[in-house]
Amino acid sequence: MVKKDEVVIGSKEERVLIEKTKKISIKEASAYSFMDGFGLRYVTPYALATGASNTQIALLSSVPGLVGSLSQLFTFRAMKKWPRKNIIRWSVFLQALMWIFMIAAGIPFFLWGMKTSFSSNAIVVIYILLILAGAFAGPAWSSLMRDLVSKNRGEYFGLRNRIAGTVALVCMFVAGFLLDYFKKTHVFLGFAVLFFVAFVGRFISSYLFTKHYDPKFTPDDKKYFTIFDFIKKMRYNNFGRFVLYFSTFSLAVAVASPFFSVFYLKNLGFSYTQYMITAIANSVSAIIFMPLWGKFADRYGNLKVMKINGFLIPFLPLFYLPIIFIHTSFWILFVVLLVEIYSGFIWAGFNLAAGNFIYDAVSRERLSICTSYFNILNAFGSLFGALLGGYLASQNFQFFGLTGLLFVFLIGGIARFAVHFIFFDGIEEVREVRGFSVRRHLKERTIRLYLETKRLFRSALRSVSMNKFFDAMVSESEHLYSSNPNNLLNNN
Questions:
Q1: Closest Cα to residue 323, out of 410, 395, 393?
Q2: Which residues 6+ apart lie within 8 Å of 266 measured at CB?
Q3: Which of 126, 155, 240, 448 is 20 to 30 A from residue 394's alpha carbon, by CA?
Q4: Rounded CA Rg of the chain
Q5: How far apart are CA 258 and CA 394, in angstroms?
Q6: What element of type H or E holds 335?
Q7: 95 with 188: CB under 8 angstroms?
Q8: Structure pTM?
């Protein structure tokens, strides 16, 4: 293997290593998907199975992200001492180990009969450590991938996410059936199997990071600034306004988002298989539309994708409100599936565009520190939103017949609309892109469809004409030979 120090920057040899690493990164994303599909997607059901309250679910969905983001303040210092891929590898390895402790957290409740909050609290603590281990590597990974993927990021990450999403889809499908099977005997065994597979998947990720090419990178102290400096000036620069919008939008989103799983499993009484089907519907939708959003973003800009989807996202929690008028389990599941498909469609574009916007807006030297501050403020927003949602869910508020979680969903939808319309307009696109208008886009699509249809039609006509020609030849031959059998002999 060629050592990094022996590779000439910009050489053909380096380009080969970069392309090889980009392919390995897709494999690593697929390994991560085992942790996602078998592990992360089922932490909330695991906590609910141990008797977790709405407040604990709110903490489970918000505190780990905040603690993990705060740990990223130290990632920049670590990058001064160690290569980026080593930081990532060991962080991911520790994250893999946390799944073993996650399994152990359920033993007191399921095997020892301790029907207290001990296991659910332990799950929250271990999940915090699990997310912390992975989050610590976040800025190093973002910095590394920015160096490796310098062009057509929307297309590459769209493909990467699509493959990873497909793997996660299969994993969720298998995991849901496993849980429903073990639910009839011992549900803890089912969760233990799921989380062990998650451990194996993340362990493989750790190994694959050893195969990554890490271009030489030296953090520049002159580019460093504190989070307080960043907050003080965030209203006066484009990236700061982007962070302000995204973090407040995360606050609004988190008012309702932690409680969708609770709503499915407790209020609607979904089985684990039904819960799995809703997650799969979301993932399939995201897999289908993410590459399309990626190409759209490369052409018209990430900001345009965020603007479109940022307007559509607030409708999500509001779509659950009509469920109070539906009394058939089949139609309830049908409505939920439609909402999840819609959710996968819009979040695929929004998250992909937001991630790529950071790569475009921030220089190579400042990417790690800016990513850290972005994640920290985003996590604070999610924490406050989830705590607000948990408080509203625990109170007996009522509005036009909407109570409990449905009232929370109403407030969450209104908050999303308010944030999007107040904070989005101050952000500007940072690279040259094509102007976009719905009329022109539809016109271009119509012209392309017309030309493609015309091409296919002409091809079909040529094919029909040739077929007619050959049919005529065969018909004439049949006529000649049937009228005089000796023609076959006289041919020579």
A1: 410
A2: 48
A3: 126
A4: 27
A5: 14
A6: helix 329-361
A7: no
A8: 0.72
